[in-house]
Amino acid sequence: MASEAKRAHDAETAIKAPPGPLREFWHYFSENKGAVAGLLAVVIVLLAALFADVVAPHSPAQQYRDHFLEPPVWQEGGSWDFVLGTDAVGRDILSRIIHGSRYSLFIALIVVSLALTSGIALGLVAGFARGWTESMIMRAMDILLAVPSLLLAIVIVAILGPGLFNAVIAIAVTYLPQFTRLTRASVITETSKDYVTASRVTGAGLPRLMFLTVLPNCLAPLIVQASLAFSNAILDAAALGFLGLGAQPPAPEWGTMLADAREFVLRAWWVVTFPGLAILITVLALNLMGDGLRDALDPKLKRS
Amino acid sequence: MIRFVLTRLGVLIPTFVGVTIVAFALIRLVPGDPIELLVGERGISEERLAELRTRFGFDRPLPVQYLSFLGNVLQGDLGQSLVTRKPVVDEFLTLFPATLELGLCGLLFAVFLGIPAGVVAAVNRGSAFDHLLMGTSLTGFSMPIFWWGLLLIILFSGTLQWTPVSGRIDLLYFFPPVTGFMLIDSLLSGQEGAFTSAARHLILPTIVLGTIPLAVIARQTRSAMLEVLGEDYIRTARAKGLTPRRVIGLHALRNAMIPVITVIGLSASTLFSGAILTETIFSWPGIGKWLIDSVARRDYPSVQGGILLIASIVMLVNFGVDILYGLINPKIRRRT
Question: What is the ipTM of this complex?
Answer without folding.
Answer: 0.85
